[in-house]
Amino acid sequence: MLIDNHNRVINYLRLAVTDRCNLRCNYCMPSEGIDFSGSNELLSISELIRTSEMMVREGIDKIRITGGEPFVRKDLPLLLKSLSKNKDLKEISITTNGTLIGRHLPLLKELRIDHINLSMDAIEAETFNKITRRETFATVYENLLRMLDMGFKVKINCIVLDGQNIDQIYPMLELTRNYDVSVRFLEEMPFNGGSRQFDTIRWNYKEILSYISQAYPEYERLPAPATSTAMNYGIPGFKGSFGIIPSFSRTFCGSCNRLRISATGDLITCLYGKPRINIRQLLRDGSDDQSIAGHIRGALHTRSKTGFEEQQRYKGVFDNSMTSIGG
Questions:
Q1: How many domains does the chain have?
Q2: Per-residue three-class SS string for 230-248
Q3: Chain centroid to CA 159: how far?
Q4: Backbone angles phi, psi at 292, to 5 degrees
Q5: 218-254 burial by CB neighbour count: b if 16+ within 10 A, else e?
């Protein structure tokens, strides 16, 4: 079992398989992109498999595959097939932008990987394409409907961007009227490779909920696990639900049960902090699993209690792009 220095049990790993993405969302990275890692800098599929198996032995029972966009990596199915055979994993999930997932849906169903987080910041093509700097809305929306029709458990992550997609909040909520889908609204964070910085936001979780209450005053709070990052709500008569994630306000830090491993092998104990160790380097230096697990446990005992505390230790955290951190 993995336990940090604040006595929090860590059972959830966000495992990035690439830092590349085929979109250029304006809140994630500059329009020209970033300096993506070379293939030799990324964890190989065999290294990803070994790392995930080691982490499960240490007590991880939930793994979320992230990127970049995971499906730009053509050998991803090899990892997914390996994970699906691990009986000690309670949940395997994927975060995707929805552009490339379509042809993989039958395999995901076969592997019983049915928890999908879809990053989609608008339900109207012009706004969606302006935010992503690409024209892929039709493909993403078609894949969303396919996933819902096939019975996938879909959560839509919509970042609330002042001056860009506020008019999309109500239409996004209307998806939950007829579909069993969860739409989660996230506070914006100033990650963007240094091209976008701010100290405060207008659309914090209180403002988002207040705005929603103007059109849907009858919403009800839903129960959620103590480790949940989202405050979840339902609207009477609607098939789905909605949530709000205070990613800027960080009200959920006290119950954090998550670790991140970047596509290049950096172990990140907090989204707002510096990597503690590099697993890729340890693997390629010939370290055995027991030794690497010891390094991981040691890293957990340097963990800050909150993201705000960690941010003070790492002043340059927001100079990074989310795609290089692992989402």
A1: 1
A2: CEEEECCCCCCEEEEECCC
A3: 12
A4: -65, -40
A5: ebeeeeeeebebbbbbbbeebebbbbbbbbbbbebbe
Residue 220, strand partner residues: 234
Residue 131's Cα: distance from chain center in Å?
18
Place of tokens 């339900």: 123
CA–CA dist 207, 209 (Å, integer): 5
* pLDDT of res. 194: 45
Q: Which two tokens stand for residue 16?
A: 């990035």
Burial annotation 129-147 (CB, 10 A radius, 16+ → b, else e): bbbbebebbebbbebbeeb
Is the pLDDT confidence value at 227 over 80?
Answer: yes
What are the structure tokens assigned to 249, written together? Answer: 């306000």
Q: Write out the residue range of the structural domain in which residue 100 sits.
A: 2-291+302-325
126 in any annotated domain: yes
Position 73 in a domain:
yes
- Return the axis-axis angle of helices 125-132 and 137-149, rounded to nearest 10°: 110
Round to whole Å and give the CA distance between 235 and 220.
6
Angle 169-178/205-215 helices, nearest 10 degrees? 60
**CATH code of residue 88:** 3.20.20.70
Domain assignment of residue 297, yes or no:
no
User: Is residue 55 a part of any domain in this protein?
Assistant: yes
Half-sphere exposure in the Cβ direction for 163 (13 Å, CA): 4
Residues 257-287 pLDDT 10s: 999 999 999 999 998 888 999 999 999 999 9
Structure tokens at 320: 């990074």
